[in-house]
């Protein structure tokens, strides 16, 4: 078992050095210049309160600030909140809001503005699976005590609240801009951040201009004051080979996630630098729908996992770039239990035994198992959008499909349009298994979002295996209220073992931010709550 030295009840204050690592540091920063960032996906909406997907949070980090920031060592430091206190019962958080900060539209930041943001995040009309998933089980109310004091009241203790609020999903927006309506705000959210949205050219780019009045950098930034860069063109380059060619040539200065086939070229190019960050949270994998046959049967789910040969498939498809991540928490997540590998290992003999015992004893002419005249078949759905599902993922799924056939399991791969894929999250009848079922999170309490009954009731679409299990719910309720590392480890171990024993999830590989930059681009860093690239400190060497 691995007890990472990070307590979910993180530090309540902090200051000093950044605790961050960055690309190509060193030298004296100079102001000016523009860069092109090559993104792998276009957001559905620029407002990260709406919907809540990773392409939103990556770009939103450039124009929104959050109440707090998380450092690599897990401590939480001031940002738009200068300080905060927590009541002894853990139910009241009181934040002192930084004074003298203005939104890009000239409106002042105050406690009332912060409250308006929380109201929007939790409004069902906002359709935020992410914000609602994190907050609804715990949130009771909030209020502006006075212009400089914002208060959150919880219905029950939530030890992960501070790191959760560090994410760009909880970035603070101008209430005046939000009042324009969700549709307009999706196009041009207004924050307090180092850059502001100039224009979103759909299908091409988001253009970001420097905010010359920026005075609200987090305590862990490398510098205070405005950004060094004048402009960032956030271009959508979904094809990985196109992205890599762009940064090799003159088409980009920084790109997200080069394809694994370019590893050798990347290592041999003296003009490029690679920066990597492995996300905490649930790794990428298949969520097995426990409400639809054949995965209503625990033995069938267990057999499916033992038959997948996932470790070999990940190694082959990603050419050794990623290690296999089998369980519901990635290996970098605090309180991960690394002793559960036997529940996920490739074991075709055990898989065959489980299927025999479950009554799938006959074979049809294609070699697939049958029971009562029905073929053992499951359909896994995934997005047909290459930004969601890159070619290496498709290869990975095909390798798993071939391995499952060896035990007589017919795994059908079904690509569907992106809008249908996201809609499937909230429809238990839309899939037998869901690919791409990851959850990047700064806290192991992501297990509550992904596996608790509360999540099913309060934020449908996050519990993608449609699990309702008291053996999970009880420990998760306890750990949310705990700040004791030993107790937390025991409770998280309990939940992870229940997930493993019941075979709710087939882990594949860790969500990873891999940034490739030209060497003259200095001081790009990756923040740890969501692995978001931070360009506030970035500058171009002459």
What is the element layout, followed by pairings?
Blueprint: E1 22-23, E2 34-39, H1 54-63, E3 68-70, E4 76-78, E5 81-86, E6 92-97, H2 111-121, H3 129-135, E7 139-146, E8 149-154, H4 161-165, H5 175-178, H6 182-187, E9 195-201, E10 205-210, E11 231-236, H7 240-248, E12 254-256, H8 263-267, E13 272-278, E14 281-282, E15 284-288, H9 298-307, H10 310-317, H11 348-357, E16 362-363, E17 369-371, E18 374-375, E19 377-383, H12 391-406, E20 410-416, H13 418-424, E21 433-434, E22 439-440, H14 446-451, H15 453-458, H16 470-480, H17 485-502, E23 505-509, E24 512-518, E25 521-522, E26 524-526, E27 533-534, E28 539-540
Parallel strand pairs: 2-11, 2-12, 19-20, 19-21
Antiparallel strand pairs: 1-26, 3-4, 5-6, 6-8, 7-8, 9-10, 10-11, 12-24, 13-24, 14-22, 15-21, 15-23, 16-17, 17-18, 25-28, 26-27
Helix pairs in contact: 9-11, 10-12, 16-17
Organism: Mycolicibacterium brisbanense
Protein name: ABC transporter extracellular solute binding protein
Keywords: Signal, Transport
Short key terms for the protein model shown above:
542 residues, alpha+beta, D-Maltodextrin-Binding Protein, domain 2, Dipeptide-binding Protein, domain 3, seven-stranded mixed sheet, five-stranded mixed sheet, 23% strand, disordered N terminus
Task: Kindly describe this structure.
It is a single chain. Helix 10 (310-317) runs antiparallel to helix 12 (391-406) and helix 16 runs antiparallel to helix 17 (485-502). The protein has 17 helices and 28 strands. The chain has 542 residues and is an alpha+beta fold. The protein has two domains: 28-278 and 512-540, D-Maltodextrin-Binding Protein, domain 2 (3-Layer(aba) Sandwich); 281-509, Dipeptide-binding Protein, Domain 3 (Dipeptide-binding Protein, domain 3). A hairpin with a 3-residue loop joins strand 9 (195-201) and strand 10. It holds the Pfam family SBP_bac_5. Belongs to the bacterial solute-binding protein 5 family. It is found in: Cell envelope. GO terms for molecular function: peptide transmembrane transporter activity. This is ABC transporter extracellular solute binding protein.
